[in-house]
Amino acid sequence: MSKTSRTKGATFERDIVKRLNEFFESHDINFSCKRNLDQYQKSNLADIQIPYHSVECKHYKEGWWWKPEWWKQVCEAAEHNEIPVLIYKFNHKPVRVCLPLYAISAEYAQNNDLTCVVDFETWIAILEKRWDSYDIDLNWPV
């Protein structure tokens, strides 16, 4: 991977962290996320960890749809009932978020093979609506 590609990826991750922290602050959630720099040293680590979620970020020059290996990567990084979230962007295209359907509704079984893609703002709206129920729906350890 070239230095330019790494820089673009890191810049994208920082932007996502900033936007997530704005969400936490605006909703009085006592949490602040940051990039996981250990991801460069060890395998199976997410780019960003937030409560209930493991987040992988991808920013590429060309394309339109996420790649199966990206989804596999974030699913492997998700531990302890964390929801895998793939946030991706291609140049001159909007940010997209791939997540399992159970992240949207508890009526779906916890199956990472059943996914949907939404824009970033819709994912933030899903977080806003579902945040308080994730610990119950996902049997999150307390």
Task: Describe the 3D structure.
The chain has 142 residues and is α+β, with helices and mostly antiparallel strands. It has a single domain, classed as Trna Endonuclease, Chain: A, domain 1 (3-Layer(aba) Sandwich), CATH 3.40.1350. 35% of the residues lie in helices and 20% in strands. It is built from four helices and five strands, in the order αββαβββαα. Strands 1-2-3-4-5 form a five-stranded mixed sheet. A hairpin with a 5-residue loop joins β3 and β4. The mean pLDDT is 87.
SSE layout and pairings?
Blueprint: H1 3-26, E1 48-50, E2 53-60, H2 68-77, E3 83-90, E4 96-100, E5 115-119, H3 120-130, H4 134-137
Parallel strand pairs: 2-3
Antiparallel strand pairs: 1-2, 3-4, 4-5
Helix content: 25-40%
SSE succession = HEEHEEEHH
Task: Tally the structural domains.
Answer: 1
- Give the integer mean of the pLDDT values: 87
User: Spans with pLDDT under 50 lasting ≥5 residues?
Assistant: none
CATH topology name, in short, is Trna Endonuclease, Chain: A, domain 1
Largest beta-sheet details? 5 strands, mixed
CA-CA gap between termini: 40 Å
Strand line-up across the major sheet: 1-2-3-4-5
Structural class: alpha+beta
Backbone CA Rg? 14 Å
